[in-house]
Design brief:
The protein is an all-alpha fold. The longest helix is centred in the N-terminal third of the chain and has 23 residues.
């Protein structure tokens, strides 16, 4: 152990540099590669560091306690539920990472990172997304939904995370070059998001741009505000006209109209989006009504069996769970599988992310949270591993971005035993 302390305690800035490199890699690989490998490496370093220096590190991360406890409760409750009421061999390993998230956060709070790593990583990630995404858009049919190897909904969410970071850089950076790069990448990623065909992403993007507009106006003097409002109205009109003229948006609109016509004609089976979600919500609500406290567990066969029985008993027109056993809503999904306490844990996580944020991080964290709340309204967010990484790991990094207290762990030459 003493040898480990000497190795891991060597050089005060070692961990700061290491964290910065890993954050660059994580954000760079978020869309185009497997960022989960970087997340796992960060978790491994965090566990080793916290074990070796357990008596010296501070677990009282000022202002962040709610976030740490909320994530720990979410993971611990799910593991207990699976252990006593579910199948530990099949599902429990998926929630171990939620218990490692607080360890990672404590480690990052104690060791710190260079804030420029966020800009560098997000910039590289944005350019790589454009490098792979633009040719896919150009070389495919207009009805094709951009994916870059992901589900279009997942891709749109990851691109929106980048947009949130770029919007923050426009306000926080002192350098015109960085602001210009951020603006250019925002326009580029909007082009990609439009071609994902994800309606929820369109709504999220409008919310982010509205928040940006309000923030911009609040920062300006009265006369500049009038000019800014005029320019924003012109840009909004041009932007909406451009977006509505894009083949991907037109194809998505036509598909939506066709689906509405099918619903009106009673052709529910071929409705794979709007009505499918309404039906999934209807079935999920009916199932939750029977087991609101502890839910049904995460086993696919159990969800399918109980959904079939309830659909028959309540004479519901169709059972979407036969096609895919999830509720197309993260709040309903968590409640359905693990009960009301899991739902409260999820709500606590969303609340804790923005509770008492470091000064200057408020707009950033609210924008980041809005993206995931809107996604969670129409999809089961945390069933996807990369979205877990995007929300919990990237969210933790963004929460610490402006904190002046990070990086105050063990220093070079400090006694470790």
């Amino acid at each position: 152990m003493e040898l480990l302390k000497r190795v891991f305690g060597y050089q005060s800035d070692f961990y700061k540099y290491l964290n910065s490199v890993l954050i660059v890699l994580l954000l760079s690989m978020l869309v185009v590669s497997n960022a989960s490998q970087v997340r796992n490496l960060l978790a491994l370093v965090a566990v080793i560091y916290c074990v070796v220096f357990i008596r010296k590190i501070t677990f009282k991360c000022a202002g962040h306690s709610w976030w740490i406890y909320a994530v720990a409760f979410f993971g611990f409750y799910h593991m207990l539920h699976i252990f006593f009421l579910g199948d530990p061999s099949a599902h429990i390993s998926g929630y171990v990472k939620f218990l490692l998230m607080p360890v990672f956060f404590v480690y990052l709070f104690n060791t710190g990172f260079d804030s420029k790593a966020i800009f560098v990583g997000a910039t590289i990630g944005g350019f790589l997304s454009l490098y792979y995404g633009v040719p896919e858009v150009i070389n495919t049919h207009s009805s094709h939904r951009l994916s870059i190897g992901h589900n279009p909904i997942v891709l749109a969410t990851l691109l929106l995370v980048y947009v949130v970071i770029y919007l923050e850089l426009i306000f926080s950076s002192k350098y015109i070059v960085i602001k210009a790069i951020a603006v250019a990448l925002i326009f580029g990623l909007i082009y990609l998001i439009v071609n994902t065909g994800v309606r929820g992403a369109y709504i999220s993007l409008l919310f982010l741009l509205a928040i940006f507009s309000v923030r911009l106006i609040l920062h300006l003097s009265f006369h500049k505000k009038i000019l800014a409002v005029a320019l924003l109205l012109i840009l909004s009109s041009v932007g909406l006209y451009w977006a509505s003229s894009q083949p991907a948006v037109q194809a998505r609109y036509q598909a939506t109209v066709l689906e509405v016509e099918r619903i009106q004609q009673g052709d529910y089976v071929r409705s794979r989006s709007i009505w499918a979600r309404f039906n999934a919500w209807q079935v999920a609500f009916a199932m939750i009504h029977e087991r609101p406290l502890l839910g049904y567990g995460e086993t696919r066969s159990a969800l399918l069996e109980h959904s079939e029985r309830i659909v028959e008993e309540r004479q519901i027109t169709y059972n979407y769970f036969k096609r895919l056993p999830h509720a197309h809503n993260e709040f309903l999904q968590v409640w359905l599988e693990y009960g009301v306490f899991a739902l409260l844990g999820l709500l606590l996580i969303f609340f804790a992310l923005v509770y008492r944020p470091p000064i200057g991080s408020e707009w950033l964290l609210y924008s980041f949270l809005i993206v995931f709340i809107l996604l969670s309204m129409t999809d089961s967010t945390f069933k996807n591993n990369i979205l877990v990484t995007a929300f919990f790991v990237v969210g933790s990094i963004l929460r610490l971005w402006r904190d002046p207290n990070i990086g105050n762990g063990i220093k070079e030459g400090q006694q470790t035993s």
